[in-house]
Design goal:
By secondary structure, the chain is α/β, with parallel strands linked by helices. Helices cover 52% and strands 6% of the residues. It is globular.
């Protein structure tokens, strides 16, 4: 078990012992840096806890087979996430280096998105999905062609189908809530976990739990106080300090460490066949896919600086983009680069650099809205021009 979670040995040893001793708690918070494996460990924990045997990595029991393709019916995934980079990376890997592992990587990347459209999460709000039904149906149908035991598709077929998966995925992403987990979803989850009891364990994974709406946090507290037997809540965050103390008191916090540079290079080489040193880290690897689709963080930074003399704020339509885990930090990094040039885009580059640092710190310490901080940065930059 936990064979797919690399270089988190302390945590995997602890979890293995707790699973084997049947002492895993009903509420946990997995926290750690971006791309450290928080969702990986949560999904693997759900698999081994529901395994009909001993949780071995290659187990062929029904529960494990369903978990491998994220089709386990009593697994709910919700919360903000940057879906597209993983889907694009999975597509590229399967096309250039087809294998069973690549097949499952792509299936799981797409299923992480499709799980956000579980009927339970939208009960009573089906009208909001009207524009998404065709894309949902198309994406599910497309993904079926990739499932084992069917052979992996030929390159010519992949070249035809993979762009369709990308297009349908992009359309669905636009439908998802852009401001964290809404209270309606938490209420539905509460009713679900307290509903008809089954012999199967129930799992709720909340990604980027620090971005939950305040009302949703309060509703979650009530569930965590006394979760039903056989129910497991796993909260994920890159900012433990942004989680309410009252929530922290009701879950067990488990940390994932920042992998060393050498360890990240090994992950990149082993899992993604990236030559050593070509990409600095995992965050940069996945950002490269998103950069291609968003026009580049450098282009966004250029828009930021060139718009300082315009009366119109240029990023009103990108609230959801800033909310995604990696994008805020990547954009700030792109803003810093031009400050070292012979002709920087602002009159006082040192002051601008300190301002960017301040904005980054406010995000880390106080979990302020990324879109609000970008707007604040924009107008404060105007003042030093």
């Amino acid at each position: 078990m936990y064979d797919n979670l690399l270089f988190q040995n302390r945590l995997t040893s602890l979890l293995t012992q707790e699973v084997q001793n049947a002492s895993f708690p009903p509420g946990v918070l997995f926290h750690g840096p971006a791309r450290s494996g928080k969702l990986t460990v949560a999904l693997e924990t759900a698999r081994v806890l529901s395994c009909d045997k001993t949780g071995e990595w290659a187990c062929s029991c029904t529960a494990c087979r369903l978990h491998r393709t994220l089709d386990y019916p009593d697994l709910i995934l919700t919360g903000n996430k940057n879906f597209l980079p993983e889907i694009l990376a999975g597509s590229q890997l399967l096309l250039t280096r087809p294998s069973e592992a690549r097949r499952f990587f792509l299936i799981r990347a797409v299923k992480k998105l499709l799980k956000r459209f579980d009927p339970l999460l939208w009960e009573g709000d089906e009208a909001k999905l009207k524009s998404a039904w065709n894309h949902l149906e198309a994406l599910n149908d497309l993904l079926e062609t990739f499932y084992p035991p069917a052979p992996i598709l030929e390159a010519s077929q992949l070249e035809l189908l993979l762009p369709k998966i990308e297009t349908a995925s992009q359309a669905l992403i636009k439908v998802l809530p852009g401001s964290g987990i809404p209270i309606q979803q938490v209420r539905r989850l509460s009713a679900w976990v307290r509903g008809t009891s089954t012999q199967k364990a129930k799992f709720v994974i909340l990604e980027n739990a620090d971005k939950m709406q305040e009302s949703a946090r309060n509703a979650l507290l009530k569930i965590l106080e006394e979760p039903p037997k056989g129910t497991y809540f796993m909260l994920l965050t890159s900012q433990k300090g942004a989680i309410l103390p009252t929530i922290l008191s009701r879950v067990r916090a488990l940390s994932l460490v920042e992998r060393t540079s050498a360890e990240q290079q090994q992950v990149l080489s082993t899992l993604f066949h990236v030559p050593s040193g070509e990409v600095p880290d995992l965050v940069s690897y996945f950002q490269a896919f998103e950069t291609d689709k968003q026009g580049g963080f450098e282009a966004l930074a250029e828009t930021f600086y060139t718009s300082l003399t315009s009366p119109v704020y240029p990023f009103d339509e990108q609230i959801k983009f800033w909310a995604e885990e990696d994008n805020f930090t990547a954009f700030l990094q792109a803003l810093v680069k031009p400050l070292t040039k012979a002709q920087p885009p602002v009159r006082e580059p040192d002051r601008m650099f300190r301002l960017i640092q301040e904005i980054s710190t406010r995000r880390d310490q106080f979990n302020l809205s990324a879109s609000l901080l970008i707007e604040t940065l924009f107008y404060r930059t105007r003042q030093i021009q």
